[in-house]
Design goal:
By secondary structure, the protein is mainly β. It is about 5% helix and about 50% strand. The longest helix has 4 residues, at about 50.
Length: about 150
């Protein structure tokens, strides 16, 4: 199975994005454009997702153990949901489990698709062709060296 993403300008820089749908608390699939981040261990939703997905924040277990280029100690919580990526042929790959949600509105302006999802695929970033390719069996690729 092959899934495609593309590069787009985000804050003046071309970055790799992949569309994925997240199952909301009111049982609707909501489409998000995720930054494909091979440096992120886990997937994170931005703060605005709380309202978009109708997430109940009354009983949160707030964590601050996330770190990265921007530093550490950013508050977030884990939320149980489903995420799916849809191929151009209409075939879905479903992921179920916890997704992280930033509580700080300045932590990230875009959702981040981390290696917890990306490691399920062979991932090819091809800036020249404006493609991000997520590939899983039975599809494969071969590089021929001259």
């Amino acid at each position: 199975m092959i899934f495609y993403g593309s590069y787009r300008i985000n804050w003046g820089v071309y970055r790799p994005f992949i569309s994925a749908w997240v199952f909301s608390s009111n049982e609707k699939w909501v489409k998000f454009s995720f930054l494909a981040d091979t440096g992120a261990d886990e997937t994170f939703l931005h703060h605005r997702s709380i309202d978009i997905l109708n997430i109940d924040t009354s009983h949160l277990n707030v964590k601050t153990d996330v770190g990265g280029v921007g530093g550490s100690g950013v508050p977030y919580f884990q939320w149980e949901t489903r995420l799916k990526i849809i191929s151009t042929k209409g075939i879905s790959k479903l992921f179920a489990g916890k997704v992280n949600v930033f509580l700080d509105p300045h932590a990230s302006r875009v959702p981040i698709l981390g290696r917890d999802v990306l490691d399920s695929f062979v991932v090819i970033f091809d800036r020249e062709k404006d493609q991000i390719i997520l590939m899983e069996q039975p599809d494969s690729y071969k590089i021929i060296m001259d």
